[in-house]
Amino acid sequence: MVLFAWQDYKDYKLYELKLEGAEEQNLVRKWSTENPLWDFHKPSRNESVLKVMIPPEEASGFIETLRNYHLEYKVLIEDLAPLVQAQRAENLEKKLLIQWPHIDVLSVFYTHSEINDYLDSLPERYPKRVQVKQFGWSYERRALKVLTITNGDGRRNKPVILIDGTVHAREWISPSMALYIIQQLLDHYVDNQELLQDYDWVIMPVVNADGYEYTHTDSRYWRKTRRPTSNPDCIGTDINRNFGYEWGHDEGSSSDPCEDIYRGERAFDQPESQVLRDVMLHYRGRLNFYLSLHSYGNYFLLPWGYTSDFPDTYQDMMSVADAGAKAIIYSTNGIYSYGSTYYVLYPTHTADFALGVVNATVSMTMELPAAGFQGFDPWVSHIERLVTESWVGVRAMAAEVIRRYPA
Ligand SMILES: [Zn+2]
After folding, report:
1. What separation in Å is there between the alpha carbon of 249 and the centre of ligand 1?
2. CA-CA distance, 160 to 173, in Å (whole number)?
3. Which of 274, 280, 288, 292 would bridge 159 by S-S if both were Cys, CB 3.0 to 4.6 A apart?
């Protein structure tokens, strides 16, 4: 009998590999297809060092494979369990110290339902400036909510900056960042009012609600949705490979439901993808900046992801990314790489769709910095450093968009 659903990651190991040349890069791609339980985290397309998480029952096969190919590796963590346990305990402890309805986004990771409660509390505090709208439901019937923030001047149809978070469940700094942006625009309005004078902000902190909740209750490193697939052993689809623009025409998605980059049976067959699509389409004609918050790797990723070609407006979008990268360097010395998704990392479909179908003026995926032992798992003590630095970049990019594309 299973008393606790919580996956403890007992004896899961974290390795670091060093790859040399394209041949070894291709090997890793092949292994991750053949062994969906080998969880590779490749920070970028051309990166030579990568991390991989291996379950205990796969460890001997994994090591044997590396030895056969004479690949160098080192063990970073022998057993993930105590670390995962400590992080979970720390977050729950911190949460107990804070009395609802106050929330402290700098010291706690909140669940999807807590985030929804927070969003629902805002219209009472800012009746003229916010609106909470539900655009649909997740597969497990969680309400998918979107917050609109204005300066309250009543002017309609301003251009929109649309920000989404938590397309991938385990990237916990992403919802924290979305909440931090909301607080900057509401609680620190005086410092940021020029960002709201001619533009409205639309923020969806959690797209993959089921997956994100699952990382809190069951399995910390879950990435996909929670909808069953044609394979009874494998659950979930990668929302960022499920969007209906050149769906399936890229190198970075998979037709195998057991892979973490599974693209689904058809484009938009996930309810969460449909909802995010509908949010984007709702603002068609007004969408001047689409920004999708992911982690990790310090990247501003521009379309296209599906092809090595560049969109016509590529240089304009690069100027916006440049403003963000410069602002972060001046502020913290943090280094961001930026450019076409295809060359820098791997396909990001939501940003391709926002440009290709919704005609967003600037469309971008932001990979927030790595933290913690895997990269997806900052300690709560890391949140403040990560979100304050990232806000410097987001703020500078928003200001650049507003300057370049006046209402
Ligand atoms: Zn992601």
Report:
1. 19
2. 23
3. 288
CA 367 / ligand 1 centre spacing (Å): 7
The residue count for the chain: 407
Antiparallel, parallel or unpaired: β 299-302 and 13-18? unpaired
To which residue do tokens 């993959």 refer? 208
Cβ(291)–Cβ(207) under 8 Å?
A: no
Q: Distance from the CA of 258 to the center of ligand 1, in angstroms?
A: 17
**How far away, in angstroms, is 297 Cα from ligand 1 center?**
10
137-152: pLDDT as tens digits: 999 999 999 999 999 9
Question: Which structure tokens are listed for 180?
Answer: 């931090």
Q: How many whole angstroms separate alpha carbon 337 and alpha carbon 297?
A: 9
- The active-site residue out of 213, 259, 272, 367 is 367
- 210 and 218 Cβ atoms separated by less than 8 Å: no
Question: Pairing state of beta strands 49-54 and 72-77?
Answer: unpaired
> How many other CB atoms are there within 10 angstroms of residue 93's CB atom?
11
Neighbouring-strand partners of residue 89: none
User: Ligand 1 centre from 44 Cα, in Å?
Assistant: 12
Question: What domains does the chain contain, in order, with CATH numbers?
Answer: 13-80 (3.30.70.340), 97-404 (3.40.630.10)
- The set of residues, in sequence order, having a beta carbon less than 8 Å from that of 295 and lying 6+ positions away, is 171, 172, 173, 174, 367, 368, 369, 370, 375, 376
Is position 171 annotated as part of the catalytic site? no
Cα–ligand 1 centroid distance for 166 (angstroms) = 7
For 104-131, how does the pLDDT look when each residue is reduced to its tens digit (9 = 90+)?
Answer: 999 999 999 999 999 999 999 999 999 9
- Flag whether the pTM goes above 0.90: yes
